[in-house]
Amino acid sequence: MASPMKIRATTTAGVTEVKALMSHPMETGRRKDADGQLVPAHYITEVTAQHNGKLVLSALWGPAVSQNPFLQFRFKGGAAGDKVVVAWKDTKGETRTDEVVLS
Amino acid sequence: MNWKPALAVVALVISLPLLAQNDDNIFAQYRAMFGDDNPAELVEMQGEELWKTARGPQHASLAACDLGLGAGVVAGAYAQLPRYFKDADRVQDLEARLAYCMVKLQGFTPEEAVAKPYSEQGQPATDMEALAAWIAGQSRGVPVAVPQSHPQEKAAFELGRQLFNYRAGPYDFSCATCHSQSDKRIRLQALPNLTEAKGARNAFATWPGYRISQGAVRTMEWRVGDCVRQQRFPQLVFTSDAAIALITYMGVLAAGEPMAAPGLKR
Amino acid sequence: MKLQRRKFLRLGAAALGGFATAAFWPLRAMASAFDAAFKAPDMNGVFKELGTTPTPSDQIQFASPDIAENGAVVPVSITSKLPKTEQIMVLVEKNPNPMAAVFMIPEGTEGFVSTRVKVGQTSNIYAVVKADGKFYSAVRETKVTLGGCGG
Hints:
heterotrimer, A: elongated, B: 266 residues
């Protein structure tokens, strides 16, 4: 079960800024562990963000995105009570979805 | 007196012609770009859950653990550790206190409580790291106030001061060898002067910290233990009197600095 | 490409209803389109897959550190002032595979993203923006003191 994301969303002058911090090892597949064995690649490949059901961002990632990825973006709109949902999928097919309610 | 060889080694390392200025400034731009979004936050979330989860043979949470401000009081607790605890009759830092509560409240054995303090590369944060991250975070903005009223607290400070200045090991290093002068560095790692308020305050207030090079939250005890390793001393035992004494010494010198942990570290 | 994007958005809005359990990920089509670009071993290879070499543009504000304390985590922020910005990409020239990330910007979302990437060694980082069907770029060098790929 993937670890939760930390999502912060604040609306100022009609624009909502979203900051998401995701928990993920983002292994490139090129790193060797303490025993000299290659650690297999394991990283987020797809990210989507929705605001009240409307897609506000999507992304394709490679292994070069840093461990415990950070993502920040802004979209027009957003009112108290609205939901912002961020989801990701990784190379193992694992997924994680978290949401935040605008205050 | 074996001063010269050790000093020569240190001077050589420090004078490497890389960057002229104090490297803290060079990386200020880099650190600033992280803003408030420290990956340690993820570990803090883990720690909060651990605190509240019933675990161990006694199936109890840590919610009744007294960190010095009363049972279950976490806000501001980190800023006054290490301190003397009557029930343990000992000066304890955060990790020693957590281990104590894990034994008394949750029924773990002392060995289990200290079995795995630090995570390896690629592993999630250990219980100790996660709890430390969250508990320290609950002291954000609170001025450091490591107490010195109990005789054992004073003794810990004095022991810490002696250990800080104790030269040993194959390099004849003490903590002071690297940490008693200002504006020094080893390669590109800045060396805070821990003998004066400014260096001591910044260092104490920003550990635990997310260590970018390891992708992990590391505690103050980890930091001290890693320095000891680099001094080629025997391994610093987790939650030992020596570790707690050194942290007490640094904490007292950092008095008044608002806590800003978990920080962001190289 | 514009037509594809509108279709993609409609598809996205409908399919994302049952978000958490959606077996169908609308990014599938996009993912295969960029597969080759992610695998390209150098900048020329990436541009070949994109079908064009981007034009340098001063309408792209690109913030990245001059020198990174640790190449494993390098913050980058890209703001595109180009009208009809649809995609923002981050490419790290000296990485084994320069393409790090592609962000798809729907209407209503600002042409801005901020994230953190691994930079294996001192390298140029490119911000590539697709706007109104054309590609533009901005470049900055980031010096790395500690390599970013797990060393």
